[in-house]
Amino acid sequence: MTATANERLGLAPTAPRPASETRPLQDRRETNPLFGDQKMKLGLFGINCSYGLIMSHAPSSYRVTWEHTKEIAQRADRIGFDVLVPVARWKGFGGSTNFNGNCFETYTWAAGIAEATERIGVAATSHLPTVHPIVAAKAATTIDHISRGRFALNLVMGWVPPEMEMFGGEQREHDERYAFGQEWIDYVTRLWTEPGSFEVDGEHFQGALLEAYPKPHQAPRPALLNAGNSPAGIEFSARNVDINFASLDTLENIRAYTDKVRSKARDDYQREIQVMTYGLVVCRDTEDEAKRAFQQVVDEGDWGAAGNVIKIAGSGASQSFDHAVKKMQERFIAGWGGYPVVGTPEQVTEQLAALNEAGMQGMIFGLIDYNEELEYFGNNVMPLLKEVGLRQ
Q: Where is this region: Disordered (predicted)?
């Protein structure tokens, strides 16, 4: 084995580090709202990317500027939401909107949002093939300290071939991406938790005298999220993460899916996992207004961008979207393939309650106009969610 730089240069070894450097500082159940006791957790999805979750020219004041995304985040924080989850995007989806093409990188975005907020959980979304584990572990730890334990890392295997080609490589086969992801998260976890130096000698990563100080703020490690819904994705989530995200078409299928994921985590890995969904929420004073606003998103949709997403998903790049490719193309236009929640405040409350009853423990969602509609949601839906016991 080749001598290390320390050996070649005769460097003095690192003395044992104090506990303040080698241990996380605080139980995450005390710091991170994702581990709080809200029965139905709520979050916003995609406030760092152009058009958010709608591939549409429907009217909206939403724009990707730092001032605007920070204002949305602070409003969600004041209302009492639990988490903000950004979309990791390196290349837009073309069409007339170039959907999501104008976007902020998520680790640096999360660091800024963490400093600008007080209570809400803040995630970064990481395409694992694009970020080395050492860099990811250090960035995550830094954001976790900025937020004092409110950070979460959303793990994405990288499913869009044009994006992966931007990094000079070919897209791995589906299940190979999860094998790579397992080695990646094992590496990151060791950097977060090992008190001293260690070595890695895997198929994808090698390194000697590895170390990372300080450790994350929250113990035992930051929250981990994943939206894999294929067999390999479910296996990865059950083994590794705290929250699996999924969108399905019926409450019956949701109930079967959530039971499956939680049972696999318990039976195969002796651990608990939360399951949440995502989608578009359209809430208005009347049912007719809500349905017309939702339909306007579809009618003014960017079918070019939606067609590109469907072709990528249908090529086998993402097995998680197979159901949507075949049956629910409009869901990409209005909610990125997610579960639509449309109606009056009372109806939205009923639909969220039905999702919760079917096993979903939370929802991260988009809005046609995030900043303007958040205030309405806070004033009209949050009190009803408290009345029915979904929120405290």
A: 1-32
